[in-house]
Design brief:
This protein is mostly helical. It is 52% helix and 6% strand. Strands 3-4-7 form a 3-stranded antiparallel sheet. A two-stranded antiparallel ribbon has the order 1-2. It has a two-stranded antiparallel sheet with strand order 5-6. Strand 5 (242-243) and strand 6 (248-249) form a beta hairpin. The chain is globular. The structure holds 1-deoxynojirimycin (2 copies). One 1-deoxynojirimycin binds next to loops. One 1-deoxynojirimycin is lined by residues 48, 57, 61, 63-64, 189-191, 394.
Length: 407
């Protein structure tokens, strides 16, 4: 964790970095693959981090896993046969693991269970439940994978493993979950607040939208009809998150439980939602003016909040989860910028067509990673040194998806 010489060099000489964004992408992929092949876990389990204490992130989180697997869907159509086979192998192992977790009795009592033990058993410790973004995000990644396979003429794999006429495949079950449960409040992606969340709803909306596309291609008229029927009410629920008087998208409506100190109504979860939606979704994707307006308010808040951002001449600042955050990665001594949040800004601006600005955010993230490319969950709001769970799988994955958008 001796990484910070580069910031000094940068501010005094305005020279480049110890490593390029491309080199960091190579590091990120390698460390990500290391986490996926951890010797102590069942094949297909995606550990959030190898850290087993202070904090213990040695679990398979459904959300982190689904967002991580987006990387391999992206890498699947490749000129290199080896790469295609490797991506397909990794995706298939994850699929097998999820197929298994979907059958487990769990404390939530449905598929909104947030995380599982790495040996493939359910986790009965007290936790924020349900987290209904999980099945929706898993459906989004698996359907994108299925649509990619259809383009590669691999319909048999899709029909036998991903989406089956019997209704018994993982995508069928997750879509069913979205249809049945989207109206219920659930715990947000930060595992702190129970209510109706923009992030969760965008994930659910995207699952419906992609589900509509898939069932149309596969000719499942019944499911196509049910998905299409659900869509309009979810769409208007999403519209109600826009706060016209403040000019921002509110992360949570109708809070029923959990922390009550998030009064700014600013949350990078809205930007993460836009990345799940993708550029095709004009209303909630990276091209949306409402999303952009929210992003500007967020960066304004973090500019004032973190000492690290105050004296920088760097165009892109460090971004955290939300201004009132006090979680330091292990305890509650105060909030910090996160790699996934800073990477999200990079991806947002690159997808929005502002590649120069997006790349600056990516460089910001490279700057706070270790010289040898390691990335934890957070970096200190004062001096930028890494802390929080080490080698966070999601940090690497979000760096890579941002990198794909920016280069
Ligand atoms: C651990 C969660 O994963 C994190 O997001 C949260 O801030 C803390 N617990 C506090 O609830
Ligand atoms: C805490 C984050 O808030 C949550 O989103 C994540 O799923 C877990 N850590 C595991 O990485």
């Amino acid at each position: 964790m001796k990484m910070f010489l580069s910031i000094l060099i940068f501010s005094f000489t305005t020279q480049g970095f110890a490593k390029t964004p491309q080199q960091q992408a190579d590091y990120a992929l390698n460390y990500l693959l290391e986490n996926l092949s951890h010797p102590q876990v069942l094949a297909g389990a995606v550990i959030a981090s190898p850290s087993q204490k202070n904090p213990n992130y040695f679990y398979h989180w459904v959300r982190d896993a689904a967002l991580t697997m987006k990387v391999f869907v992206k890498l699947l159509p490749s000129k290199s046969r080896v790469q295609t086979n490797e991506a397909q192998r990794i995706l298939t192992q994850w699929l097998e693991f999820e197929k298994h977790t979907q059958t487990l009795n769990n404390p939530t009592g449905h598929l909104g269970e947030p995380r599982f033990n790495v040996d493939g058993t359910a986790d009965f410790s007290p936790w924020g439940r349900p987290q209904n973004d999980g099945p929706a995000l898993r459906a989004v990644t698996m359907i994108s994978w299925a649509l990619t396979l259809l383009k590669m003429d691999q319909i048999d794999f899709v029909l036998n493993n991903l989406y089956c006429q019997s209704g018994d495949c993982p995508i069928n079950k997750d879509l069913q979950h979205v249809i049945e449960h989207w109206k219920e409040p659930s715990v947000d992606l930060w595992e702190e607040v129970k209510g109706d969340h923009f992030f969760t709803r965008v994930a659910q909306y995207k699952a419906l939208q992609l589900g509509i596309e898939l069932t149309q291609r596969l000719g499942d008229v019944a499911m196509y009809g049910r998905l299409s029927q659900t869509k309009p009410s979810l769409q208007s629920a999403l519209q109600s998150h826009w706060d016209a008087s403040r000019g921002l998208i509110r992360p949570t409506l109708h809070q029923v439980d959990g922390w009550t100190h998030k009064t700014s109504n600013l949350d990078v979860a809205v930007i993460l939602a836009a990345l799940v939606a993708g550029v095709e979704e004009k209303a909630w994707g990276p091209l949306s003016n409402q999303v952009l307006a929210t992003a500007e308010k967020l960066s304004g808040a973090f500019l004032n909040l973190y000492p690290l951002n105050k004296n920088t001449t760097f165009p892109a600042i460090a971004i955290g989860r939300y201004p009132e955050d006090v979680y330091d990665g292990n305890g509650f001594s105060g909030g910090h910028p996160w790699f996934i949040a800073t990477n999200a800004f990079a991806e947002l601006y690159c997808l929005h067509g502002e590649k120069n600005l997006g790349r600056e955010y990516l460089k910001r993230s490279v700057l706070h990673s270790a010289n040898d490319g390691h990335m934890s969950e957070q970096f200190a709001s004062t001096n930028g040194y890494m802390h929080g769970a080490r080698d966070l799988t999601w940090s690497y994955a979000s760096y890579l998806t941002a990198y794909f958008a920016c280069y």
